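Demethoxyubiquinone hydroxylase family protein, Brevundimonas nasdae. Tokens?
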Amino acid sequence: MSHSIPLPRPGQGADKARMDEILRVDHAGEYAAVLIYRAQKAVFEGRKGRDGVAHDLSEMQDQEAVHLARFERLLNERQVRPTVMTPLWRIAASALGAGTALMGEKAAHACTEAVESVIEKHYADQIAEIGDRDPALAAELKQFRDEELAHHDHAIEHGSREAPAYRLLSGVIKVGCKTAIKISERI
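Tokens:
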């Protein structure tokens, strides 16, 4: 697997600026993940025969909430502002979660698979980039990445690739995630 590690930026304060980008985008991603799972769970919860998927979504949401809380603490400790896109990401993530759940369980799982495949690579790139500079944060990112991979694998095991228009759905979600990452790093 190839990783795209950015070249170090020149100039005073460049390392801090890059770490700010990493924390900002990771916070935004975990925030969105919590909202996606929350919206999916809301669609399935209380519906006949959907207790299992609602329970699984609740567990994944809880893991993402732990990640989110950690990034919120890091933003505060390191005095990094969150992305200004948070209100838009709130709407987009909730709509993505609800929309895929309304398409059915397999589409909800396809959403998870697509999102987590992008996030796994994103975290792997960050781990490679900051491993020497901030080994403690790199270790946390590795743990988070492993948990995201477990969500990815769970989605595949539960039929993500059987979703209606799987390739199209997956492709659109991946492009959306990659775009949100680039935007959230910067603003």
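Residues 20 and 79 are 9 Å apart (CA to CA).
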